[in-house]
């Protein structure tokens, strides 16, 4: 049996019919959206175009590979030596066990001294205790291969270079690490795993004679909560052990030649000439004095800052030797300048 349907008449009737049709369509779409379908994928941070792509930082929980437990953390002064392996990432990227994701690091080949900027985007390597896994493109820019000894140092890269890496491009090469410092860093390499340099590298390349004996460590990875150094190297150098006296009647051996240490020469160089090594500028006087004592430098106040320098040196070769010692002591941003 069919019932007559009254059609809406006039303009108001047509509007009412259109409104009912719109409500019915909205209800149907809402029902489809709540039927358990797959939600749209989240936007990848790596695909964002601005600095927001570097946030938020992901740290994660501790995990174990083999017999080594890694505890991720936001370590600002991260600086270690170890070995690189080849990963599977795209662009100039890398994988790291503990640093936040994403992070930016300088990776230095301890074979050539070449240094590149890398964006860490994943955890790993998950099948070994290598210090870092580099994407094929990053490894090609570094000029290395599997098991290349490297130094990995966290840096605050300029935004224009971060943008290049986020877009899958290469950032410009960093300044090559001097050969003298490369040799010092190679002496800190463990047989496997990695070694923390945040406490500074003992500068031994400028001392004549054999390198001091170093006792093997219990583990190649020390938790960051445990201090890696209780005594600064300069404190030991300034308080040597007393010399042993020979027994009565014994023939005293001829004294060994004094070790040759790269230090600032006498102030015979006219002001404004020669070369100086600027260790850094500090806002706290005590920090500047401590840095100066570590590198045998001098402190001069310039405005609200305290500048630490070594030199002046008559030749650039002397300045390079001092620069290697300064950087090995942990001041990796030190630079050579002409004049005083």
Please give a structural write-up.
This protein is α+β, with helices and mostly antiparallel strands and 340 residues long. Helix content is 23%, strand content 21%. The chain has helices at 10-33, 136-142, 159-166, 179-187, 233-237, 285-295, 316-328, and strands at 63-65, 68-70, 79-86, 93-96, 103-109, 115-123, 132-134, 148-154, 195-196, 275-282, 298-302, 305-313, 335-338. The chain has a 6-stranded mixed beta barrel with strand order 3-7-4-6-5-8. A hairpin with a 5-residue loop joins strand 5 and strand 6 (115-123). Helix 4 (179-187) runs parallel beside helix 7. The longest helix is centred in the first third of the chain and has 24 residues, at 10-33. It is globular, with a radius of gyration of 31 Å. The protein starts with 9 loop residues before the first helix and ends with a strand.
For this entry, give a set of tags.
alpha+beta, 6-stranded mixed barrel, 4-stranded antiparallel β-sheet, 21% strand
């Amino acid at each position: 049996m069919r019932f007559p349907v009254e059609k809406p008449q006039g303009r108001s009737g047509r509007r009412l019919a259109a409104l009912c049709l719109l409500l019915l369509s909205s209800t149907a779409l809402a029902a489809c959206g709540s039927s358990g379908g797959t939600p749209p994928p989240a936007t990848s941070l790596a695909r964002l175009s601005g600095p927001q792509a570097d946030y938020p930082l992901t740290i994660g929980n501790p995990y174990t590979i083999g017999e080594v437990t890694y505890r991720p953390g936001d370590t600002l002064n991260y600086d270690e030596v170890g070995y690189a392996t080849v990963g599977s990432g795209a662009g100039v990227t890398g994988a790291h066990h503990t640093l936040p994701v994403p992070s930016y690091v300088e990776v230095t080949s301890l074979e050539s001294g070449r240094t590149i900027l890398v964006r860490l985007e994943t955890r790993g390597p998950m099948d070994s205790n290598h210090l870092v896994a580099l994407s094929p493109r990053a490894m090609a820019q570094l000029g290395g291969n599997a098991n290349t000894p490297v130094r990995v140092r966290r840096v605050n890269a300029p935004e224009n270079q971060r943008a290049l890496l986020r877009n899958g491009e290469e950032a410009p090469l960093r300044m090559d690490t001097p050969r003298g410092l490369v040799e010092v860093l190679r002496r800190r390499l463990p047989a496997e795993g990695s070694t923390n340099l945040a406490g500074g590298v003992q500068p031994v390349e400028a001392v004549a004679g054999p390198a001091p004996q170093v006792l093997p460590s219990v583990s190649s990875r020390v938790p960051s909560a445990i201090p890696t150094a209780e005594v600064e190297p300069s404190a030991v150098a300034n308080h040597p052990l007393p010399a042993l006296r020979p027994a009565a009647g014994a023939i005293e051996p001829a004294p060994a030649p004094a070790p040759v240490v790269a230090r600032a020469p006498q102030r015979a160089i006219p002001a404004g000439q020669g070369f100086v090594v600027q260790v850094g500028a500090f806002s706290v006087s005590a920090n500047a004095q401590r840095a100066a004592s570590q590198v045998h430098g001098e402190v001069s106040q310039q405005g609200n800052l305290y500048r630490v320098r070594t030199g002046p040196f008559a030749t650039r070769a002397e300045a390079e030797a001092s620069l290697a010692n300064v950087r090995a002591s942990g001041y990796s941003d030190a630079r050579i300048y002409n004049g005083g």
